[in-house]
Amino acid sequence: MSSPVGAGALKLRLTTLFSQAPKIGAYLNSMLYFDPKQIVFTDQPDDWHQAVIDIVAVTFGDNGQQVDGTDKTFTMRFKGDGYKQVLKNGLVYSVHVQVKKPGAYQVRVVLRDAGSELLGSASQFIVVPDVDKATWPSPASYCAAS
Description:
Layout: E1 12-21, E2 25-34, E3 42-44, E4 48-60, E5 66-79, H1 80-89, E6 91-98, E7 103-113, E8 119-128
Antiparallel strand pairs: 1-2, 2-6, 3-4, 4-5, 4-7, 7-8
């Protein structure tokens, strides 16, 4: 989680979008794509297949300090043709992390397969606008001049 660069045995793709909802306010919607063929599924009765993954998502501010985060353990169960389709197409998991103020953030997500104990990580930078002022910060205001 401390590395700003994606790494690990599990290959992940991360797409993060800024969103705003009346009841919960501003948040980042991070969609994490991964290949379930890299995850250990155990065969269950009646053609079910099960895997357990842990996902941690953390936001870091422009000063490099952790701002917020969330974590969840998720049990995936698929049966028959559904399992075959998941193996063929992959999976997208969506995780939401609230943001309390506008600015530049880095989102880092780590996925752990409980069956193999393998890890994968991905990160992405995003600029959150000041929705109340209806202004979008200039990306140049968050980049050091060279």
